[in-house]
Design a protein that fits this description.
224 residues; alpha+beta; Diaminopimelate Epimerase, Chain A, domain 1; 2 domains; 15 strands
Length: 224
């Protein structure tokens, strides 16, 4: 039996370029014990499996896998899945993932999710002197991870890259979980440019909740 995998790019720039590819799979067609292997075979930094809700439902349940492991929460899969569900006429405002309930909303073309910083993996932060130093960083410098290299790039703006070989991701193009962590670390709203040029926005709240948002664009689906 072939499996359809929808693909979207999450955290694109305003012109729809860049963004992190995400595989989206209907959980009804892949049994839970087989999901990690499919995510490994697909090779996306994350693949999300969703129990597609009935029309009118406000909650959907999902699991998130890297090529190497399951994650309790991740940003680009929850943002991408929220957009995908709404595109199908399913007005879901909460995603249930292992870490907890992820509230989601849309504002002026941007899809936002809300999470606690401690839901995200621990990142080793490397503050670089400037954007050029971030761009000069080599993925081969890291054998474990996840590592997040960043530098200020203007008022409320940072340039970043993320490396996580132990998660099966040599370099991630756009990382929502890392955006949540760095926002909590810096305690302010951020506009993050990551990887080749992906854009991530965050909003900091002192009550412990962080919002992360961005644009999503579809790609051609796959059959595997």
């Amino acid at each position: 039996m072939s499996i359809e995998v929808d693909v979207v790019r999450v955290f694109t720039d305003p012109d729809g370029r860049h963004g992190n590819p995400l595989g989206i799979v209907d959980g009804a067609v892949v049994a839970p014990p087989d999901r990690q292997q499919l995510a490994t075979n697909l090779g996306f930094s994350e693949t999300v499996f969703v129990d597609v809700p009935e029309p009118g439902a406000r909650v959907a349940t999902a699991q998130i896998f890297t090529p190497a492991t399951e994650l309790p929460f991740a940003g680009h899969p929850t943002v991408g899945l929220s957009w995908w569900l709404r595109e199908r006429g399913l007005p879901v405002d909460t995603l249930e993932v292992p870490a907890g309930p992820v509230a989601t909303r849309v504002e002026t073309g941007m899809t936002w999710v809300r999470a606690k910083a401690d839901w995200a993996p621990e990142f080793v932060f490397h503050a670089a002197p400037d954007s050029a130093a971030v761009q000069a960083t080599r993925a081969t410098a890291f054998e474990d991870g996840p590592h997040y290299v960043w530098a200020w790039a203007g008022e409320g703006a940072i340039r970043s890259r993320m490396f996580a070989p132990t998660l099966g991701v040599a370099e991630d193009e756009a990382t929502g979980a890392a955006a949540v962590r760095i926002t909590d670390h810096l305690r302010r709203n951020l506009h993050i440019t990551q990887g080749r040029g992906s854009h991530i926005l965050t909003r900091y709240s002192p009550d412990g909740w962080i919002e992360v948002g961005g644009r999503v664009h579809p790609q051609e689906s796959l059959r595997v």
